Amino acid sequence: MKAAVLYSTVAKADTAPPKPSYADARPLVVQELERPEPRAGELGVAITYSSLCHSDLSVVDGSRVRPLPMALGHEAVGRVVSVGAGVSDVSVGDHVVLVFVPSCGDCRACRAGRPALCHRAAEVNGSGDLLHGEALLRTPSGERINHHLGVSAFADYAVVARESVVVIDDDVPDTVAAMFGCAVLTGMGAVLNTAAVTAGQSVAVFGLGAVGLSAVMAASLAGAGSVIAIDPNPGKHQLALDCGATVVGTPDDAASLIRDAAAAGDGVDVAIEAVGSAGVIAACLGHVTRGGAVVSVGLPHPSAELTVPALQFAGAGKRLLGSYMGDAVPARDIPLYLGYWREGRLPVELLHTDTRPLTEINEGLDALASGQVVRRLFQA
What we know:
By secondary structure, this protein is of the alpha/beta class. The chain is built from 13 helices and 18 strands. The N and C termini lie close together (10 Å).
């Protein structure tokens, strides 16, 4: 099998002294590995398309610390090619979306109906193992290679837990389905599950990557009265309008746009933070009305701290909500969102910038870091 493996991190290019580009440093090594077979409770999946996400970039630049070496990639689509013992509800040939939280079904979070927060999944995702056993991948010299979020999708094949896949209909194009396991699930879920936006409410989305743009689509789908999309890159503004935003602008424009677009002129009902910045979270709290909610979707650096006026909460009834994987129930939400796509109400195709061979994965890191792409798909 072929896979892209990270052996050492490369700091962000804006650090001092400046580091080489990812294309020059080549932190991801595309190499041939021995192909493992699924164990009990697992599936072998032939990956057709994988998708590059900022969460992958965060591992490469070291801001999300993971055990190395690691086979990266966590958003993908494929076909089941082998089935491990004990799996009876998935068959060879099934069309599947891979999801990065393989919920155990029995921990406190899963029993509460919040599988995105599965305790067991958090443990194995952090250690680089799979839900049903230790890591299977090995370097040519026999060294362990850790799995990324139970998926390791920058490859032509992956062994994953049964709980890491959602079976979908055959008619969904792989270039569409590839983006549902993370970007669409996270952005849509932040709006529909975590914030529970209702018709007529005002929503501001900060950060117009694939997750933020999915949140824009969700707010429009929910019938929000105004959808204000904010990003410092003007090149993303028209795309946000195409996704359903009613107004777009840069962070410098945010206060005036929100004042003009929000129903009462005193802030939006919901602000979605899809940047991964403590500063943006703090700013969002200032942009929501009394009783409004800020939903934090991005992943700030672990050392980042948030300092805000405490009186905003009890004094103004504001809420700060964390949303991991959009508080999704993948087996429920992916078919639901695909239904919206079929109805023409969820233009996910707009997120797909282009498709490249997996050998260009390091160049893809540069393109994502610089904001040149929203979702670049890869084929091994």
